[in-house]
Design goal:
The chain has 453 residues and is an alpha/beta fold. Helix content is 31%, strand content 24%.
Length: 453
């Protein structure tokens, strides 16, 4: 029998790789893991966590303004970018340390250097060390995609650099219409910057429910964000520190910073996949895997964004756990990718789970649509002209709730709980039979009785 240095070697110590390594070690496997950048991966280091901290920071200006309607006087409040970034960096360092400690406690050997695959059971570290493993797990995640053929692309930044800007820009252009683009457009606007969003499609948030897309756009524009759709950049220039963007519809936009958030691709470059015979798919070269996360090479698996299935941190964690249980725990487990709740931390935020109205109709369902748009109770005193949207997509024949979509304060918190009901195949009658909690925004989800479509 062949002797290996490790039972499992994980490349990438992010959310998916960490969970897989710890669970595998808990099953008795001898595990090692390598990370080329910082332990914690995209979510912890330059993704979900620092982004959410910046979202919190961006809310305070409106919170201070709203306080006046409740009798509070807030005078002299100022914002300091350097304090925010320093405190954010301190928290990220703490979390990275917690990831490290968790792995070390589980007995996982850590290599803080780049690893490449040289064969079905072989890995080479950047230091030159050769390592063998019975199983290799690819968990390198994704990275920002940039149109390299765009003149002046070097004058832009991505979501990697946005967390480390030396100062808060006064004018920002954001390219893109997905999670990252919209979240940072709202963050910068909330912190006082002038923001212009440029998106190639006719409406932001492709793939989301149509009512959600339209509602969020109205809210963003009401907050002063300029939204330009059906346009892309034709060229970019830096004129003495001022960034200038030229668009296909003839606009000349000027800003202090241009953030490119036009997509992400699997981080597979230079991993040695071709040499090992690992098959990839799509222009982004994501690792092709089966429902047990196994690649075309039996000894090599992949989880998380590098597989381009559902690119969300909790999905990567669940996939990593399922992989470890399957390969090392004797419990074949596949990850269920249906009815995954997700949130977009814009202002207002979005929470959604299940099918959009468009997806449900395309799937052949006969639908009953329930929708409510209302002014949140808080803003009856604050005076802010914002609206919350809640929508249920129901199969008219079975009465099953196929999807729930919320745009408004605390949407993410609500959708996590609603996700349980939808995963359990709850019906509209089940929602109706649930006693409302008053006064709350969430009570609308169980009091909507009149069909809107």
């Amino acid at each position: 029998m062949t002797s290996f240095d490790y039972d499992l070697f994980t490349i990438g110590i992010g959310s998916g790789g960490t969970r897989a390594s710890r669970i595998a070690a808990g099953h008795g496997a001898k595990v090692a893991a390598a990370e080329a950048y910082r332990i914690g991966g995209t979510c912890v280091i330059r993704g979900c966590v620092p982004k959410k901290l910046m979202v919190y920071a961006s809310h305070f200006a409106s919170d201070f303004a709203d306080a006046e309607g409740f009798g509070w006087t807030v005078k002299g409040a100022t914002f300091d970018w350097h304090t925010l970034i320093a405190n954010k960096d301190r928290e990220i360092a703490r979390l990275s340390g917690a990831y490290r400690k968790g792995l070390e406690t589980a007995g996982v050997a850590i290599f803080e250097e780049r690893a490449t695959i040289t064969g079905p059971n072989n890995v080479r570290l950047s230091s030159g060390q050769e390592i063998t493993a019975r199983t290799i797990l690819i968990a390198t995640g994704g990275k920002p995609w940039l149109p390299d053929d765009l003149p002046g692309i070097e004058h832009t930044i991505t979501s990697n650099e946005v967390f480390h800007l030396p100062k808060l820009p006064k004018r920002v252009i954001v390219a893109g219409g997905g999670y990252i683009a919209l979240e940072f457009a709202c963050i910068f606007r909330g912190l006082g910057a002038e923001v212009t969003l440029v998106y190639r499609g006719d409406q932001i948030l492709r793939g989301f429910d149509g009512d959600v897309r339209a509602h969020l756009r109205r809210e963003m524009e009401a907050k002063g964000i300029r939204v330009i759709t059906n346009a892309v950049f034709t060229g970019l220039e830096d004129k003495g520190g001022e960034k200038v963007a030229y668009t296909t519809n003839g606009l000349e936009l000027r800003a202090d910073c241009i953030l490119m958030a036009v997509g992400r691709v699997a981080d597979t470059d230079g991993l040695g996949l071709e040499r090992a015979g690992v098959e990839t798919v799509g222009e982004g070269r994501a690792v092709k895997v089966d429902h047990f996360s196994r690649s075309s090479v039996p000894s090599i698996y992949a989880v998380g964004d590098v597989t381009n299935r559902i690119n969300l941190t909790p999905v990567a964690i669940r996939e990593g756990h399922a992989f470890a249980d399957t390969v090392f725990g004797g419990k074949p487990t596949s990850c269920d990718h249906s009815d995954v709740p997700t949130a977009v931390f814009t202002t207002p935020e979005i929470g959604t789970v299940g099918l959009s109205e468009e997806m449900a109709r395309k799937g052949g369902h006969s639908l009953a649509i329930y929708k409510s748009v209302f002014r949140p109770m808080k803003h009856t005193l604050s005076g802010r002209e914002t609206r919350t949207l809640m929508k249920l997509v129901v199969d008219a024949q079975s009465d099953r709730v196929l999807g729930c979509h919320i745009v408004g304060a605390d949407a993410a918190e609500m959708i996590q709980c609603v996700g349980i009901a939808i995963k359990m195949k709850a019906t509209k009658a089940d929602f109706d039979a649930t006693m409302a909690l008053h006064p709350s925004a969430a009570e609308e989800l169980v009091t909507m009785r009149t069909r809107s479509a």
